[in-house]
Amino acid sequence: MSYLGIGVSPGNVPVHHGSNVKVINKGVRIAELILRCLICGLAVVAAILIGTDSQVKVIFTIKKEAKFTDMKVLVFLVIANGIAAAYSDSSSKVHFEYD
Predict the structure, then answer these.
(1) CB neighbours of 57 closer than 8 A, spacing ≥ 6?
(2) Interacting residues of 72 by C-beta distance below 8 A, sequence separation 6+
(3) SS3 64
(4) Cα torsion through 83, 88, 94, 98, rounded to 10
(5) What transmembrane ranges does the database entry give (predicted)?
(6) Which residue among 11, 34, 36, 71 sits deepest, i.e. has the most Cβ atoms within 10 Å of its Cβ?
(7) Alpha-carbon gap, residue 94 to 89, rounded angstroms
(8) pLDDT per residue over 35-88, tens digit each?
């Protein structure tokens, strides 16, 4: 089958790029690395803030200290943030190691 006079099938149409593709590719890679590091850092900060936070409530003369372990949802949130940070860190290392 001919595509505009070129003997190539429509599923294998050649793509021609301009001369500045490497410059754009480098910029995208740098932006991606910055975003991955930002995601990793924010996930670690969120896990640390939630994990170390506590609150004391005084009811009459009884003091009750609330921690993140009192609510299963917050325990899940700390674990999920840790997993997200680890995945972001490992995927950024693997992605930029092989390119």
Answers:
(1) 63, 64, 66
(2) none
(3) strand
(4) 160
(5) 33-52, 73-90
(6) 36
(7) 9
(8) 888 888 888 888 888 888 888 888 888 888 888 788 888 888 888 888 888 888
Name the pTM for this structure.
0.57
Q: Report the C-alpha gap between 95 and 31 in whole angstroms.
A: 13
The tokens for 35 are: 């975003």
| Assigned token pair, 26 | 């480098």
Q: What are phi and psi of 5, to 5 degrees?
A: 85, 0
Structure tokens, 23 = 């410059």
48 CB-side CA count, 13 A: 7
